[in-house]
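WARN no homologs supplied; continuing
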Amino acid sequence: MSAPDDLARAVRDEPALLDEPALLDEAAAGGGTEAGGAPREPARPVGLGPVGWLRWAWRTLTSMRTALILLFLFALGSVPGSVYPQRGVDPGRVAQYFKDNPTQAKWLDRLWLFDVFTSPWFAAIYLLLFVSLAGCVFPRALAHLREIRRKPPAAPRNLLRLPHAEEFQGDLTLERAAAVLRRRRFRVVTGDGWVAAEKGHLRETGNLLFHLALLVLLFAVGAGGLYGYRGNVLVVEGDGFSNAVAAYDRFMPGSRVTAESLEPFSFTLKDFQASYVAAGAKQGQPLDYLARLEVRDSPESAPRQVDLKVNEPLDVDGTLTYLIGHGYAPTFRVTDGEGQVAYDGPVPCLAGDQATYTSECVIKVPDAQPSQLGFLARFLPTTVPNGDTWVSVFPGAANPTVQVFPFAGDLGLKSGLPQSVYQLDTTRLKPLGKMSAQPAPLNVGDTKELADGAGKIQFTGVKEWISLQITYDPGREPALLAAAAAVIGLVLSLTIRRRRVWVRVKDGRATVGGLTRTEGGGAAFAEEFAQIVTALRGGPPTGHAAPDEPDEPRTGNAAPGVRPDEE
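OK structure emitted
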């Protein structure tokens, strides 16, 4: 096979070989032998090499197409976080999922679908998207800065060849043409017999602002995950809370959070009030929730009164406390078989029926003698008889009662296994007395004697509890500002058009030409161009900038001889 055939095959496989001058010279000369006449070995295509592959990988990663693909994968990867329960948000539901679907849960856990936002694959998508946007935005921003600093190009020789052009006779001067265009917020330069004007750089500015805002948004989310924290706590009326790790019922810190970084505030829940619709078709529907707190921003500061409401959080130097739930905490006094008060205080109950707030309570008395005591209780906020049963008909505590189911035995608290305070394991407990599905309810102040001389329990009153979510996210405000900037950038990139206008004046004859640098903007620019021509002819003043286009920086006169663009 001849050298030209080898060259054709090599170029087909590797077009970059066209840049090799020696090979082209050889092909032109038809050389296929060495100096001594021996056949020359066919040239092989040159590979990219490590540097070439790295350059190709970087260009691929920082392309806009790759950034869009990664952004789509980022959104798609967030879907499982809303479909499956997450350990960082609700570990109880995750445990229940393992109990209900053990095989499926095992495979989901291997794929990190219960920890989506801390999974390695989600972090990889996040980091690649961050790098891709950074590598795409910053070079474009530098190029845009250079483009802004460039003066508008000089007028082409024949303006009538442009998409928008018109010629007319008149007494137009270059100074008046420049003034008309400046009034319309064009950047203007003048030369020998011509005026050049340009407008619309804010379109690319808005595009870059949008992508830069996405980059800042990703950075803010990452900073919030590293230096922020979130926790939940339940507080009963009359009790307090101090912002310390040990005080939380559940605490989820970022990887850079330490115990010393928590804001040292505290508060006491003085009162909680829930109001409901009293009558009518919407009876029982909630109207408002109000928690009255006495807050100390630091141990040395004076207390202040704060009314905590839904969507009106307590803010202490960026740490937000949200009201997210409430319930009843009836108070009991338990006296054991030896006459000692073994328990005296409130018991938070979980509402089983949100319409009436009929709640289930668990009371554990491990210090009772001669045996430990446990109670299951049903709290009825507004009790009315219903045949042989009692029910609650209203969520407010208008007529509170409690039905008590007592047990005695080993509560299993020394087994080493964790227990929920809202569940009572009765496998090693025996009922005290005859159990009934509907025991007689106790009113406030009533006492129930326990069988076998185990003691007694008294229903002493009703309190309420609130559940709070306390969050600190240093990236919250930057993320908000970035989102607002992204909207502004998107509006600018969609509404502003890049366009240029030139005017030549010679021997009392004016030629005006213009073109738009934006696809699809020809129709809108045609109307604007007609207004410019009318103003240059000396018609009614229409040279005011559109309200959506602010002033752009103007440049001074350019020296004659500025080279025109190829347009």
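The longest helix spans residues 120-149.
OK
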